[in-house]
Amino acid sequence: MKKKSNNLNLILIFCIVFCSFSFANNLNTSFIDSTDSLKKYYISLFNIGAAINKDIILGLDMESKHIVESQFNSITPENSLKWMFIQPSPNSFNFKAADKYVNIGLINNMHIVGHVLVWHSQLPDFMQKIESKSEMNNHFESHINTVVSRYKGKIDAWDVVNEAFNDDGSLRESIFYNLLGNNYIEKAFKLAHDADPKAYLIYNDYNLYKTKKRGGVIRMVKGMKSKGIKIDGVGVQAHWSLNHPSLDEIEQIILDISKLGVDVLFTELDISVLPNPWELVGAEVNQNFSKFEGDPKMNPYKEKLPKSIQNKLAKRYKDIFKLFIKHSDKISRVTFWGVMDKHSWLNDWPIKGRINYPLLFDRKYQAKKAHKALIELGSINND
């Protein structure tokens, strides 16, 4: 009987070793080589990061997790810290995914970003139904205090307020604005600072290449700084295309924001290779273009990305990063909004069913030509 038991143990050990070897062998490991790591070549310039989804956080997408750990030194949660996920019902918090997210950053010694404390979108139903200022104020204060305090000393930076301005530079009439007034942004930054005085605090928005919108943000930052309210950086959501905005427009963002005495951060970088409806407004998630669903002109690369477009994407990323390197003294972080093409939010936005190719890694977890272009550019800069 003892001999049989020993044989079973040997078989079990063999199976474990074999399965582990097979799993590691099946992972795409071409991106794990540290000599091809983005963080290696850009560490002296700015933090280089990626937004990670719930599958990565929960260990359900190990290939993407390996890319993140080998390529980036900063992470942002795509959804796991947004209000509707972390506080789905009044005073009932779900920190499961958020805790795991933070642990990934701590284990890998990464710059950990909290996204996002105050945003008019992706709110739970109960928040949408609030009608009184006092009730809104209670939830507003409680949410910020609870979330920031829980991760005090762990989360390095917070996107405190997201997308509060219209393109004309006026404040968006969100539920926060309507019930708390136009000083709700200042209030949010004060609360975040009180909950964690050492945290790096960011205002985050899209379409900042537009002069009027950027002007509204600039006025806000100047007003806050004149009152002694802490704000460390302005996050530029870089959801751009192959041709737009121009490099001159991007450079003007950097110059104008840096003059305020705060850092510039490119917080949500991806490059769409697909045509978009002319009515499209920035990255406003609530836009609906269902009339274009099924239109082949709007979804031209259903099988694969042609070599010519691969080349254009690589050149676009390289040109943008040349600009970032030029102004690296003003930029503290560049974060890609996603890890690999298959999981990019742009596949179904603004038109459902589309297949997009906006990131540095393809649907098979392989590094694309754009990644190689950025590695080459970074290596030259480090010579």
Descriptive report:
The chain is α/β, with parallel strands linked by helices. The protein has a single domain, classed as TIM Barrel (Alpha-Beta Barrel), CATH 3.20.20. It has 14 helices and nine strands. It has helices spanning about 1-25, 40, 55, 60-70, 85, 95-105, 125-130, 135-150, 175-180, 185-195, 210-225, 245-260, 305-325, 370-380; strands at about 45-50, 75, 110-120, 155-160, 200-205, 235, 240, 265-270, 330-335. Helix 8 (about 135-150) packs parallel to helix 10 (about 185-195) and helix 13 packs parallel to helix 14. The longest helix is centred in the N-terminal third of the chain and has 25 residues, at about 1-25. About 40% of the residues are buried.
User: What oligomerization state is this entry in?
Assistant: single chain
Output the strand order for the largest sheet.
1-2-3-4-5-6-8-9
Q: Specify the helix fraction band.
A: 40-55%
- Identify the overall geometry: globular
**How would you sum up the major sheet?**
8 strands, parallel, barrel
Write a short abstract of this structure.
This protein has 383 residues and is α/β, with parallel strands linked by helices.
Please tag this protein with its features.
383 residues; alpha/beta; TIM Barrel; eight-stranded parallel β-barrel; 9 strands; 14% strand; globular; disordered N terminus
Write the layout of secondary structure elements.
Blueprint: H1 2-26, H2 38-42, E1 47-52, H3 54-57, H4 62-71, E2 74-77, H5 83-86, H6 96-107, E3 111-119, H7 125-128, H8 133-150, E4 157-162, H9 175-180, H10 184-195, E5 200-205, H11 211-226, E6 233-236, E7 239-241, H12 247-258, E8 263-272, H13 307-326, E9 331-336, H14 369-382
Parallel strand pairs: 1-2, 1-9, 2-3, 3-4, 4-5, 5-6, 6-8, 7-8, 8-9
